[in-house]
Structure formats: structure tokens, C-alpha cells
Amino acid sequence: MKARRVLTLLYLTAIYVLTLSYSCQSKKEETAGKEIPETVVTGQIMGLDKALVILQEFEYPRSRLLDTVRTDETGHFTFRIHIDSPIIAFVRASRGFLPIYLEPGDSVTVYGRFDNWSYYKAVGNRGSELLYRQIGLLSATAEEYFGTSNLFGLSLLLKRKPIEDPNVQAYYKQLFQFMDTTNHPVAMWFLFFVDTDRFTDSVRKYAQKFKTKYGDHPLYREVRKMITDKLRTAPGSEAPDFAAPNPNGKIIRLSELRGNVVLLQFWASWCRPCRMNNPKLVALYDQYHDKGFEIFSFSLDTDRGKWVQAIKADNLKWQYHASDLKGWKSPIAQLYKINHTPTYILISPTGHIIAYDIHPNLLEQEVAKAMQEYGQK
């Protein structure tokens, strides 16, 4: 079990480094005429001799490069940096990421192992020790209850399990208990592991708690950006409005459908699961349209001809079809945090999200519930 805990880091860090970019900026060594003390990060990654090691500062949604060094023949390394405020940082080597907490003038030591990262440990301040210990506990719980210590993969697994599942409840109880009882700013960082779509009220509760408790802490700035991003598509939030051209070039807006229950579909002509599921959408449209149900289909196509052809071939009879023909680079897809197709989002007549990223197998059930509550009688 221990041998797997730190492997989790390969994946949990992917939550916020999937779009990783490096910046060559560095912290100024002096602020307002005051000298900033040197902060030192030393460590050893066994099995990684004379290799590049990177130190990054956590900034949402991308981490920022602080420094790079090479290990010696025994895997030892030392970073000497100047920071003017507390940060969460990551020691990155090859495929592994080791999180630590740093304050100006700190001296923190990190241990790891290249082949399996089974000896991840960070000592030197309380924040770093809290990080690695809680990650280990969550990893062990995930392995015991769900057969995996991969916390990033676990987030996808949990979406497919009922929220009433006792193991799901036990896992989140441990996570929430840590955030409830830990009197240190690193507790904020663990909001990354919370499924906002299913625990929206909890995320909002902790958002307010951390604002009250750590609103003046530099780390809160990054957490606030993360919270805002996560809640943007959470149930109960107002669905972000957008405008885009329809197949004839006319600009249409999502908000034009206010007053109806709306199924917002992100799809593409080249997406086989989308095409296979389109008859289901046609059936739902036929069943509920007269009761105030509409579909707004946004395509991630880049070829207008293939997009229009797919609409006709699948008999997608509703009027609201739009695309900016920018594919995955579409600002609208990014606005809704779309990373796979199809993605289905239910929106209430007042323009608020009812359900986000509905599994295709649950689509009829979710639409029926929404129409029972909001549809025209």
C-alpha cells in the first residue's frame, strides 16, 4: 500500500497541470527596499542521477517555473530561490511531482524514489508534512475502498458510483474532516479533490470558510480562482451565456431559450458516441418539446460541410445549432470546461444549471426529472 501512495502524485498533480506551461519569470529578490531571505529546497530522488529537476510554483490553472537544477550522481539536488510570500510548490522530475509548502526563508527537504516514488516525504515545516501525510491517507483509503490509489483516476470512478454508496461517503468524510480540523492554509488545496458537481453545497461552504479564515493569505488568491472555475458549471450556478453562428451564419444566443428546460449538447460530426446517441436526443425532443423542452447543440467541428451534413443525416430537427468551427480551441467549449464529447448539460427555465456532464445512460432519467419539475403542465 505504501509503495503506491506516491504514485498517486503522478495523477493528482495532473488535475492542475494538464495545461502546464512554463514561464521564465522569477520572484524579485527585493520588495519595497527589503531584502527577501533565501529559501532552500534540498532533497534526493534515488535512481535519478545527473538528471533535470524542476521547481514550480502552483498558480491556477497553470504552474509557474521557479528554477531548474541537475541532480548529482546519487540523486541529490538543491534549489536556492527567493520568494516574497508563502506558496505551494512542486518538485518535478521526469514523471513525478512532489508537492511542498514554502514560506520565505524556509529550508525544506524532499525525498523520493525514481522507479516508484514510494518514499515520498517532505520535512522542514508543518505545511509540507501535512501535505504528504494527508495525500498518503487518502491514497490508502482509495486503495482499500475502490482498489486504486490513483486519486486522479478515482475522481472519474466516483462519478459512476451513487453518492449514497457507503464507501463514497466514507472517502469524502475523511477528506472533509481534514479540511474541517486542519488549522493550516494547505487545507484549502484539498478542495481540488472534491467533486463540485455532486458536492456543490460543500464546496460553497468551504469557499466561504476559507475566505473568512485565509482571505488575506497569498495562497487563497489561487484557491479563489479555482473555486470560481469549479462553481461556474456547478448545479445551481447560472449557465454562462454565449453567442455563435448557426449553419446559415446567423448569430444565436443560448439565453434566447430562457423560459424552457434546455439540454445543451456539445458534440461533433466525427464523434462516434455522439452520433450513436443522437437518436435518443431526437426521441426526447419529440416527447417533451411541446411541454417546454429545447435542445441547443454546439458543435466542435472545424469543417462546416461535415457539420451540416451530420445535422441532416441524424435528423436533428431542432432549430438551435451553433459552432465557431474552432474545434477544441473554441472559447465556448473552454467556457464550459469541455474535455470530451458528448457532454450534456441541463439548464432550467431561469438559466441555471440543473445537471452537468450527464452520462448518456442517465440522460432520459435526468430530462424526465427536469420536465416533471419545470415543464409546462
Descriptive terms for the model:
377 residues; alpha+beta; single chain; four-stranded mixed β-sheet; Immunoglobulin-like; Glutaredoxin
Write the layout of secondary structure elements.
Blueprint: H1 2-5, H2 8-12, H3 14-17, E1 30-31, E2 34-35, E3 38-46, E4 52-57, E5 64-70, E6 76-82, E7 87-93, E8 96-102, E9 107-113, E10 121-123, H4 126-146, H5 151-159, H6 166-181, H7 200-214, H8 218-231, E11 243-245, E12 251-253, E13 261-267, H9 272-288, E14 293-299, H10 304-313, E15 320-322, H11 331-335, E16 343-347, E17 353-356, H12 363-374
Parallel strand pairs: 3-9, 13-14, 14-15
Antiparallel strand pairs: 1-2, 3-6, 4-5, 4-7, 7-8, 9-10, 11-12, 13-16, 16-17
CATH topology of the largest domain: Glutaredoxin
Number of strands: 17
- Residue share in β-strands: 15-25%
Largest sheet: 5 strands, mixed
Percent helix range: 25-40%
Helix vs. strand class: alpha+beta
Q: What is the distance, rounded to the nearest whole angstrom, between the alpha carbons of the first and last residues?
A: 55 Å
CATH architecture of the largest domain: 3-Layer(aba) Sandwich
Shape: elongated
